[in-house]
Amino acid sequence: MHPRYLHGAATSSEVGVYAFAAAQVKKAMEVTHYLGGENYVFWGGREGYQTLLNTDMKRELDHLANFLQAAVDWKKKIGFTGTILSLFLIF
Questions:
Q1: What is the 3-state secondary structure (H, E, C) of the chain?
Q2: 10 Å Cβ neighbour count for 24?
Q3: What is the pLDDT of residues 46-85, one digit of tens each?
């Protein structure tokens, strides 16, 4: 809901927004692991822009794929054995 994510978080073309979202996920995964959580769920809500006329879907999907891959890599690095689920709605 934060205005910084108006045009997506994991799909954002703004590196500062993308990095901030990644830092939030990193910390949340660490806390989930520390507390013994069994799963980590990405509830993406709405990613992307108001209309397809002002975006590049391939770029957005590439950003999302890189974001999720980084999360899986971090999961392995910290030894979190839980399941990662992602529920994204791309507009």
A1: CCHHHCCCCCCCCCHHHHHHHHHHHHHHHHHHHHCCCCEEEEEEEEECCCCHHHCCHHHHHHHHHHHHHHHHHHHHHHCCCCEEEEEEEEC
A2: 12
A3: 666 666 666 777 888 888 899 999 999 999 999 999 998 8
**With contact defined as beta carbons under 8 Å apart, do 86 and 42 qualify?**
yes
Q: How far is CA 29 from CA 20, 69, 91, in A?
A: 14, 14, 26
What is the separation, in whole angstroms, between the first and last Cα of the chain? 16
Query: What's the mean per-residue pLDDT of the chain?
Result: 84
pLDDT at res. 13: 78
| Cα dihedral 79, 31, 86, 6 sign | negative
Pair 49, 55: CB distance under 8 Å: yes
